[in-house]
């Protein structure tokens, strides 16, 4: 059947969609880019913010109208976090949905599509956090990762994600992830290394390790394997040029991880470590389990151990009870930390979370918007200073391909030379003019300019 798949949310969802694509192609299905020409429409969803869910609801409304107008045999499936959160209740709002599939059940998707084509409606959700069946589901998902196509259609020529753990046990009061992704489960390190080796053999020389709290990884089978130990094992894979990891939690960012970043030559000096707030009062209400001074200490240790380290962070504005003073401490933390970039979000209550049930959403929308803009402006200043410090240097980048701007433009007079983008080891985005054939290659670029988000350069030999 012709399948259309749209992905919402984080890198974990993007990896799940890559696995879905490979498994359905293996089952004989064909992927199409036009939703209207598809016989199966799938949405791999995110529940972290209301906006992501609203977009899916909008898509589903249009699909329902299409099925009603054309009386077609269109199959509609909702996958991932939103499916797990709503479960059967999703059908009350969208009765035309045929498949509701939790994130830990995507290995069964070909089977589910077959069942629907024979007239059934299927709901497959992940077991509860304490259900013993979870181990069986996890084993199947692990083998799905291992059997993935190392070069699926549309994949980056040199980049790949590898999952090292799933779930989260932190229960930050604003976050739905522990409820929809389940308990923390680390993968067997031997399986992870095997998967990385297969990907590298296929030309995927930059690997990014994924986990909701990736640096919390621990595997116990006799002697414990810590995250730093895992980095060392993967780093030794022949042909691996770059090794990254996201997203990290401040509590578990121990010195052995920083030392591994310093000592292992292909581990990139980049840390994405969300702070969420600079205020101890707000951090406690969020159940983040660290203080502002402890976060400051992490940043200092990171810069002392890995002098070239590049930092990124996340912040939430307008969390219940956040005062103007709390807000200013977040702005101060951005200035002090010198982030390359930060992701800043306005708080929105997520039904089912502790904050939604325990705290009144008492910061007005207008104040949230203003505070969001305040932090964006602070980060713009900090990001500009950080990027300007790179001007005049020559850096190695992995070329990803034409920039989105170039892709949207009409065919240029010189199709062999266009605006390209690449990334440094520190995850800086570099824009330069070059040949499309450079995509997937490592090249040297001299940095000639900067703004708050980007570096601009030219090929070092030009």
Instruction: Tell me the CATH topology of the largest domain.
Output: pyruvate-formate lyase- activating enzyme
Distance between the termini: 49 Å
What is the number of helical segments per DSSP (H or I, 4+ residues)? Answer: 16
What CATH first level of the largest domain would be assigned? Alpha Beta
Looking at the overall shape, the CATH architecture of the largest domain is Alpha-Beta Horseshoe
Whole-number tally of structural domains: 3
Q: Write down the Rg.
A: 23 Å
Mean pLDDT reading: 92
What is the fourth-level CATH superfamily of the largest domain?
tm_1862 like domain
Shape: globular
Reported for the largest beta sheet, the result is: 6 strands, parallel
Structural class: alpha/beta
Q: What is the strand tally?
A: 21
Portion in beta strands = 15-25%
Range of helix content: 25-40%
Low-pLDDT parts are none
């Amino acid at each position: 059947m012709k399948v259309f798949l749209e992905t919402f949310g984080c890198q974990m969802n993007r990896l799940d969609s890559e696995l879905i694509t490979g498994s359905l192609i293996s089952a004989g299905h064909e992927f199409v880019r036009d939703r209207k020409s598809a016989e199966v429409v799938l949405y791999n969803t995110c529940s972290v913010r209301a906006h992501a869910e609203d977009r899916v609801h909008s898509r589903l409304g249009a699909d329902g109208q299409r099925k009603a107008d054309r009386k077609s045999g269109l199959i509609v499936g909702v996958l991932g976090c939103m499916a797990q959160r709503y479960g059967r209740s999703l059908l009350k709002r969208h009765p035309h949905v045929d498949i509701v599939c939790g994130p830990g059940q995507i290995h069964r998707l070909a089977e589910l599509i077959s069942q629907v084509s024979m007239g059934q409606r299927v709901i497959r959700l992940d077991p509860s956090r304490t259900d013993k069946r979870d181990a069986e589901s996890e084993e199947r998902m692990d083998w799905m990762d291992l059997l993935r196509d190392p070069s699926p259609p549309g994949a980056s020529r040199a980049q790949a994600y590898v999952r090292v753990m799933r779930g989260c046990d932190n229960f930050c009061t604003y976050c739905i992830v522990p409820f929809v992704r389940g308990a923390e489960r680390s993968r067997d390190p031997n399986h992870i290394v095997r998967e990385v080796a297969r990907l590298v053999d296929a030309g995927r020389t930059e690997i990014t390790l994924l986990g909701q709290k990736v640096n919390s990884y621990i595997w116990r089978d006799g002697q414990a394997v810590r995250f730093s130990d895992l980095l060392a094992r993967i780093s030794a894979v022949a042909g691996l040029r770059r090794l990254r990891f996201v997203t990290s939690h401040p509590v578990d960012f121990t010195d052995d991880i920083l030392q591994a970043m310093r000592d292992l030559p292909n581990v990139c000096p980049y840390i994405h470590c969300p702070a969420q707030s600079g205020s101890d009062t707000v951090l406690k209400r969020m159940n983040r389990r660290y203080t502002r001074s402890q976060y400051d200490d992490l940043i200092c240790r990171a810069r002392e151990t890995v002098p070239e380290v590049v930092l990124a962070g996340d912040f939430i504005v307008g969390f219940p009870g956040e005062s103007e003073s709390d807000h200013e401490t977040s702005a101060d933390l951005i200035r002090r930390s010198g982030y390359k970039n930060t992701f800043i979000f306005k708080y929105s209550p997520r039904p089912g979370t502790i904050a939604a049930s325990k705290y009144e959403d008492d910061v007005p929308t207008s104040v949230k918007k203003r505070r969001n803009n305040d932090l964006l402006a602070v980060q713009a200043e900090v990001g500009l200073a950080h990027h300007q410090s790179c001007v005049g240097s020559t850096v190695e980048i992995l070329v990803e391909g034409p920039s989105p701007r170039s892709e949207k433009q009409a065919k240029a007079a010189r199709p062999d030379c266009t605006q390209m983008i690449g990334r440094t080891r520190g995850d800086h985005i570099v824009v330069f003019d070059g040949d499309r054939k450079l995509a997937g290659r490592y090249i040297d670029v001299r940095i000639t300019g900067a703004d708050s988000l980007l570096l601009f350069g030219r090929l070092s030999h030009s």
